[in-house]
Amino acid sequence: MSQSITVSWSAVDAKYPEASVQVDKLPNHDLILRCQAGLRPDRVAFAELLRRYQSQVDRVLYHLAPDWADRADLAQEVWIRVYRNINRLQEPAKFRGWLSRIATNLFYDELRKRKRVMSPLSLDAPRSLEDGEMDWEIAGDTPGPEEELTTREFYEQLREAIADLPEVFRTTIVLREIEGMAYEEIAEITGVSLGTVKSRIARARSRLQAHLQTYLDS
Question: How many CB atoms lie within 10 A of CB 119?
């Protein structure tokens, strides 16, 4: 789905002794604290942090920018920013949301730089939601030609509908429907109130449903 990345440590120009503790055995909270212990993150601990959360960064960028050929470069830039700023994270328990915020902000920074409109979301892999509020999956054991055509048309319409959403709606939909984040996490990442998050998601779902009503009815 997405490309794997490798952080270039020569860029940070730092040397550390080998870790006396097996970092792969540390819980996430302790691992982050270890990365925050010095002036710069311990390289061994940070490499383990990257290994654990790399798939999350790749997934966020994939759904935001499925057609960008340089997603791996963006992912590496995310980790460079994490490396430089991890000491600013005051609550290690919120690392996952903080990481998603860095990835999301980087994407929109790049989007503004490129000054062009593009489809920000790919839903080639349908996802069933725990809350059952929306399910974009079209079931079928052995779809025939007509069903395959309908499915392709559905996803094309869905991409267009999401591309037409205001930027703030697209962001909340990605974080909620793709990342599966709680409303409280999204509120913290986007810097708005919980009520605003709920309102944006409800309005985004309403717009998507209206746009796709023909396919939902069928």
Answer: 14
Domains contained in the chain, CATH given: 9-114 (1.10.1740.10), 145-217 (1.10.10.10)
Mean pLDDT of 66-95: 91
Q: How far is CA 191 from CA 25, 94, 97, 135, 139, in A?
A: 34, 14, 12, 27, 37
How many Å apart are CA 153 and CA 72, to the nearest integer? 29
What backbone phi and psi angles, to 5 degrees, belong to 182?
Answer: -75, 160
Express the helix, strand and coil content of the chain in percent, nearest 5 each: 65, 0, 35
SS3 195: helix
> Distance between CA 75 and CA 1 in Å, rounded?
14
Quote the CA–CA distance of 107 and 181 in Å, as a whole number.
18
Tens of pLDDT, residue by residue over 116-147, are 544 444 444 444 445 545 544 444 445 555 55
Burial of 145 (0-12, 13-18, 19+ CB in 10 A): exposed
Lowest average pLDDT, out of 29-43, 70-84, 117-131, goes to 117-131
